Automatic annotation (TrEMBL):
Family annotation (PROSITE patterns): MT_A70, N6_MTASE
Native organism: Eleginops maclovinus
An example molecular function term from Gene Ontology annotations: nucleic acid binding
UniProt-recorded name of the protein: Methyltransferase-like protein 4
Stretch list, region Disordered: 67-92, 423-455
Amino acid sequence: MSVVLVNTQGCVLDARSLIDKGYLQCIRVRENNQLSHVNCRFKGQCFQILKSHLNAKATVAADGGNIDQLQKTDKPTKKRKRKHSELNQGEIDSQAFHEKIRSVVLEGTKSLVDSARSLGYLNGTSTSDTVIEPLPSQESNLAALCEMAKELPLVDDEQQECAQPLVAEDGSTSHVDLFSCVTENRTNWANVVTLMGGDYVIPPHTAFLLSDFTRIQPLAHYGRRFDLIVMDPPWENKSVKRSRRYSSLPSTQLKRLPIPLLASPNCLVVTWVTNRPSHLQFVRDELYPHWGVDVVAEWFWVKVTTSGEFVFPLDSHHKKPYEVLVLGRYRPSSDSDTGSSEASEVPVEDQRLIVSVPSALHSQKPSLSEVLKPYIGAEAKCLELFARSLQPGWTSWGNEVLKFQHTSYFTLTATDDGAQVLEDKAADDCTDNPTEPQGLSSPAESAHFPTPVEK
């Protein structure tokens, strides 16, 4: 199950299961409307984090290969070792923040891991003999394509369609304009389709826009107000500059995101923040107030191995085994936009933990759909900004929004029950809402989700 357990400290997630949940029913769509049914699962080796990186010889990367700076080379480096007294102000602030939350992370993680082990989860082996399959190595050129698309003239808003279907009636996807129009999969099925010469798996009831920061207007004009907005900004830091994995964005530019145009009253806004104190302070003291968002809680994503150990030492000066999420509520300034009442809100508890085995793919975060459901409702409209993957029922935007949807990250297996599947699909499509992605999941699914404080 995707949510292994929930208690007063937080929850334990099975991140791979959360992904697979959206692909229980999957159709491969070919030209001329030829369809076939496939089983679709995200590749398991992406979550085979078997060892804690207590030394430099760990065999599996955690957090997308960022272990490279921990690994020793054959030739000793000649870098001058700094004395402890030479910590700069940022490092001093980081240490102070760590000391403030250390006991919460340590005690909460122990409680959650112990409970998970009693259920048969996080009991994985950490032996060195385990064979690890290679990670998918698909080169993404999506950001480069977005750069090229910026050279095209902007379409007049009055002439531009706000949304388009993923698959045309003839089964074609070649007509889809991914860069200047929101694309919707309006069916109850995941679809394997060919886009820009590559094969991608698109979850059901999903909408997405592939563009960079300068071409976000189609999303703002999409006509949707969202009850949950999650964002994972490309924060500036030295590691990103050295690796050149992706372009970073100056913090002040984030203020230009049109959150007031996208958020419904009392929308829950969640931002992933690096462990750099200046970024956390910026979100709390500048970014959220600029948008009219009140901070309500700070949560922590704790990364553990398959045997429940921290992926990095808790007190490591180089890299911590946790990341911070800042949660806030959007409060419209205009009286005409107040809409729902604050009294009807479900309070968000502070300092809760999300414990999971991280992906070995860089910057792939666990889905928060099930974790946040108690605070927004099962039928909430949800948006992810700076997304690198899609989620069922969500709208997503980013210049690599399809990155982890490429079929190289999935295992696709043809099945023999195609005829019945296609018959069921036809019946499902007749009952689809053709204009709007649905909520997080069906009411039947949400009814079995534990309340935030249930043990």
